[in-house]
Specification:
Order of helices and strands: HHHHH
Low-confidence stretches: none
Structural class: mainly alpha
């Protein structure tokens, strides 16, 4: 409402107040008429968490699951992947611990030549 003068804004505010139901007026009176701002801007939309690549959990999961072989995919697998992605983006200690362990275990197997680089554990 930056286009309006302060007098116009005050007049519109008074008009709006007078058209309110008695119950709503009581609420505003309790808050304080001067603190009531009928022109306040809406709050920002929900904070969409993203990873370092600016991808949301949904985008990460979609990309990951598209690369999973069909014979490997099932609902439990997808749920685990989703929980892991969500935990990593939200920096959950639980998921970060599981991720760190999985990376460490892969390196251990590669070092002992039980697993070739890029090969799957299963």
């Amino acid at each position: 409402m930056s286009q309006m003068t302060l007098e116009q804004e005050a007049e519109l505010k008074r008009t709006m107040y007078e058209k309110l139901s008695p119950r709503r007026r009581k609420f505003i009176d309790k808050m304080g008429y001067n603190q009531w701002d009928p022109f306040q801007k809406p709050l920002d939309p929900i904070d969409l968490r993203q990873d370092n690549n600016q991808l949301t959990t949904q985008e990460l999961i979609r990309g990951f699951l598209q690369q999973v072989p069909e014979e490997r995919y099932n609902d439990v697998y997808a749920k685990g992947a989703f929980e892991m992605a969500l935990g990593i983006i939200n920096e959950s200690e639980r998921q970060l611990g599981m991720y760190d362990f999985a990376c460490w275990y892969m390196r251990l197997l590669e070092d002992k030549e039980k697993l070739k680089k890029g090969e799957s554990l299963f």
